[in-house]
Design brief:
The protein has 39 helices and 13 strands. With 893 residues, it is an alpha/beta fold. α11 crosses α17, α14 crosses α17 and α28 runs antiparallel to α29. It is globular, with a radius of gyration of 29 Å. It starts with 7 loop residues before the first helix and ends with a helix.
Length: 893
């Protein structure tokens, strides 16, 4: 098939590549980086560039554009790239033309930016029937790729600017300003990320409402909202990065700071200090652009003091206020106010009112803005959980995410109100007061949100200050949500509070413990010198302390379980196995929190390791009906595709390989899978066990039984059945029962924790073993059988899997949404009707993955509509998606 300019997918693909090349043009940015002429702490006008400086900028722009296109299209010839650039650049009317008084070289820099943004807006965006900005459904995959590099509000604001120019609403009369502002609020829905325009997704969002069952509150804020704060409070936002103590992020060997590496991946000259300087420059540039808009469009407006001698941040606040006072201040949305400012800048530059220096300044500003936002969003070339974690560790979100009501507005999306239920994960602290303070902070934000209308305006006098304790906050949330009947209060504000919020979204908390390791302690444990009391003893003690603090808070706040619905453990699963959290989870379950979900099967050395971790979570944490597994990627991946992604071989410690084989043997017997291979598996287990332990008493069956004992608490060995604390007594009794029932397995369990382990045994267990695909005894057929057994066990226990499409594409082996592993679950029905699977959809960290729950459903809808999936599943995509929506309601906490 010959593709030409009439093919919308081809045109959109080319436009995305071109836009990404322009917005990652580091060579151009560095040429723009020359010091801006200003006094210390004061602002002057934008620099006037000479003809030679403009030519240098033009050369850097074109060289950088070509070089970035070369990176994005590595197999294309130089001539092919030149032809593509020429064809694309001709789409923008200003490129290659000149106007009186303007240098032709500078025009090639100045004019394409607004034209490019208008082209992107026209290609991807439209207005939905509800009056919101939407992404055309057939282009959502390309849109997702684009907004990782190009901040989406730039494109939405260009779309809005075109609408205002057409309708004549750029400078509304005073009596129309509120109407225009409300229209803007409906366009943006308190979010910088528009959703798709699929009518069926509108239907299920309106009728059923979507349930967000997997979202971390930290990491949920959209990147551009952090940018808003960086311009207003740069010392606090970027200061968190400047003041961070960068630590080595290596798991096995020192590899340096991951945060520093993240900066270098974006730009090899980027440091925290350079980023701080660039934010300063962005404030200066934007303040001057807004001043030019005001003075150019409203000649009578006076915005500066004598001799323009204002600090940049002061002038920025002043001109921002004056521009927003023309309309955007009629609603409280920060997104609307930012878009309003961008809209005026784009129109000012695009209609040739701007001088060449202002056009160059706009380029400089958007490149700085785009670079900052990319540090908050995981890029296509940043694979794996470690890369994700570097973004969470750079702390740029810290200042913005100290307040929570904005995130609830972002998630509900104003009048769209598509989310019915949100489970927000938070990390509890080591003391009851610390956890209470964090919960109060979150719930105050939620209470403010409940007390607003759809555009964020308070519906009554603020009452949150009257709730001076966590118990009162929980009680008032119950009242306003309608869980509790009216009760007389001495405080008139609370007594008169309505018993039903105008908001649809309802909120529950899930406390997630942090998976981590103490590298030094682990090294000492396997070296045999000053060996710790057991494996991961420090993490176990810290987890127990956090669990005790949480239980103490529950006891002193009886209504807390109404808002705190469950527990979880998150972060890098290679740092801490499920067994570490078993005693803590038992403690919390005994305190009344019964619902558990657990992040597992997402990031692993071998696909069998991921499957083993999933079943360890089920067995060791006693997951039952209504519980969930977070991610569970290992149960859906095709083994061949996984091997291809990891390079056909893996390196892993001997003991981890032994554990995988023991687990595989258990599943083969438990589920009658590939039992003809049992002799081979048994022989390999004996070989590795003999290498590590060199003890004939360590048998294959003993290793299997000892594996099932790992939920025991090794720290309880030093306690007594007469301990004053009931939970410690219970843990001691578990140990004694295991010792009495199966002394051989218990002995192996203790050896693994260093008890009576001979010299060299533990150190040998951590030696590296290379596993190649073509020599792996756990072949593709056997792995597929184990996957089937895991899924059957989850179904039997009525445990659901939380599937997170964008997170999986960034962290797992998937290149695109098209090869996401859930299609392996969707297409098994025709060939194997005895393989039921219950999975539900979440967004994980929507700010880091530039997504939302609605867009995650849209990606799944696109996958369901693939011809191969349609053929194999034999079910209508809309009915499948509706079932997923309803399953989420069944399994929500």
């Amino acid at each position: 098939m010959i593709l030409d300019s009439s093919d919308p997918i081809f045109d959109a693909t080319e436009l995305v590549i071109y836009a990404k090349a322009l917005f990652r043009n580091h060579e151009f940015l560095r040429e723009l980086e020359l010091p801006l002429p200003r006094k210390r702490g004061k602002i002057s006008s934008l620099p006037t560039r000479s003809s030679s400086e403009v030519r240098a900028l033009s050369d850097a722009f074109h060289r950088g554009r070509f070089n970035e296109m070369r990176v994005l299209s590595p197999r294309a010839t130089d001539e092919a790239i030149e032809n593509r650039i020429r064809r694309l650049s001709q789409r923008f009317s200003g490129e290659g033309s000149s106007r009186p008084g303007t240098n032709n070289g500078s025009n090639k820099i100045i004019t394409p930016l607004p034209e490019l943004l208008y082209a992107l807006a026209d290609t991807f965006l439209c207005e939905g029937k509800d009056g919101s900005i939407r992404v055309r459904s057939q282009l959502i995959r390309l849109w997702q790729e684009l907004i990782l590099v190009v901040p989406p509000l730039l494109i939405s604001s260009a779309w809005m600017a075109a609408q205002f120019m057409k309708d004549g609403d750029l400078f509304p009369a005073p009596d129309r300003q509120r109407e225009v502002a409300q229209r803007m609020a409906r366009w943006f829905c308190d979010s910088t990320l528009p959703v798709d325009d699929d009518p069926f997704l509108d239907y299920i969002s309106e009728t059923h409402g979507l349930d967000e069952v997997h979202m971390h509150l930290n990491g949920s804020t959209e990147a551009e909202k952090v940018w808003f704060d960086a311009l207003k409070r740069p010392d606090k936002v970027v200061g968190n990065l400047l003041n961070s103590k960068f630590q080595d992020s290596g798991f096995q060997i020192p590899i340096g700071s991951g945060v520093k590496r993240l900066l270098c991946q974006e730009d090899n000259q980027l440091t925290p200090q350079v980023l701080r300087s660039r934010v300063n420059n962005a404030i200066l540039l934007k303040a001057n652009l807004l001043k030019s808009v005001l003075t150019g469009c409203h000649e009578k407006t006076k915005v500066t003091g004598p001799k323009d001698n204002l600090p940049a941040d002061v002038l920025y606040r002043k001109v921002s206020h004056e521009i927003c006072a023309k309309g955007a201040h009629q609603v409280p949305s920060r997104v609307v106010q930012e878009a309003w400012k961008l809209c005026h800048i784009f129109v000012y530059v695009a209609t040739h009112q701007a001088a060449k220096d202002e056009g160059i300044a706009l380029w400089h500003y958007v490149l700085l803005r785009a670079q900052f936002c990319r540090l908050l969003v995981q890029q296509q070339d940043q694979y794996g959980f470690d890369q994700f974690q570097y973004i969470t560790q750079n702390e740029l979100r810290e200042e913005t995410e100290s307040e929570y009501s904005e995130r609830f507005r972002q998630i509900e999306r104003g009048h769209q109100r598509g989310i019915d239920h949100l489970e927000g994960r938070f990390a509890p602290k080591a003391t009851p007061d610390g956890t209470a303070a964090r919960l109060s902070q979150i719930l105050r934000g939620y209470l403010r949100f409940l007390n607003e209308n759809e555009i964020g305006e308070p519906t009554q006098t603020s009452f949150t200050n009257n709730c001076n304790s966590l118990s009162k906050l929980v009680h008032e949330i119950g009242r306003i949500e309608g869980h509790l009947g009216p009760q007389i209060s001495k405080n008139s504000d609370i007594a008169n509070m309505p018993h039903q919020s105008l908001r649809r979204l309802r909120f529950g908390l899930v406390a997630h413990f942090i998976k981590k390791q103490d590298t030094q302690e682990r090294r000492q444990f396997f070296a045999g010198k000053l060996r710790p009391y057991c494996r991961d003893s420090r993490v176990r003690r810290e987890t127990d302390q956090t669990a005790r603090a949480l239980v103490a808070l529950i006891k002193r706040t009886p209504d807390l379980p109404r808002v705190m619905r469950g527990i979880d453990a998150a972060s890098n699963e290679r740092h801490a196995a499920p067994e570490i959290f078993a005693p803590a989870f038992r403690r919390i379950r005994a305190a009344g929190i019964k619902q558990i979900t657990y992040h597992v099967g997402e990031d692993f050395a071998h696909i069998a390791s991921g499957l083993r971790a999933m079943m360890e979570a089920v067995y060791f944490l006693d997951l039952g009906a209504g519980c969930r597994i977070g991610h569970g990627t290992a149960a859906g991946l095709d083994a061949g595709s996984w091997w291809s992604a990891v390079g056909r071989y893996v390196v892993m410690p001997v003991e981890d390989r032994l554990d995988d084989l023991v687990f595989a043997r258990y599943m083969m017997l438990h589920c009658s899978v590939s039992v003809e291979r049992l002799p081979l598996i048994d022989a390999e287990i004996r070989r590795l066990a003999e290498y590590i332990w060199r003890d004939p008493n360590v048998t294959v069956d003993g290793l299997t039984r000892a594996w099932r004992l790992r939920d025991l608490d090794p720290l309880a060995r030093g306690d007594r059945t007469s301990d004053v604390e009931p939970r410690r007594r219970a843990e001691v009794r578990r140990l004694l029962t295991a010792k009495q029932d199966d002394p051989a397995a218990y002995e192996i369990f203790l050896k693994r924790h260093g008890v009576n382990a001979c010299e060299g045994q533990l150190s040998r267990s951590r030696e590296d073993l290379v596993i190649a695909e073509d020599a792996d005894i756990l072949n593709a057929e056997l792995l597929a059988g184990i996957q089937k057994g895991v899924l059957q066990e989850l179904w039997r226990k009525r445990i659901a899997i939380e599937t997170l499409p964008s997170s999986n594409v960034r962290i797992s082996i998937h290149d695109t949404y098209d090869n996401h592993h859930l299609q392996n679950w969707l297409t098994t029905g025709r060939d194997n009707t005895n393989l039921p699977i219950c999975f539900i959809i979440g967004s994980d960290d929507p700010g880091i993955f530039a997504t939302s729950l609605r867009m995650e459903y849209a990606h799944v809808m696109q996958l369901l509509q693939k011809p191969s999936v349609l053929l194999e599943s034999g079910e209508r995509p809309d009915l499948t998606l509706e079932k997923l929506c309803l399953d989420a309601k069944r399994f929500r906490f």
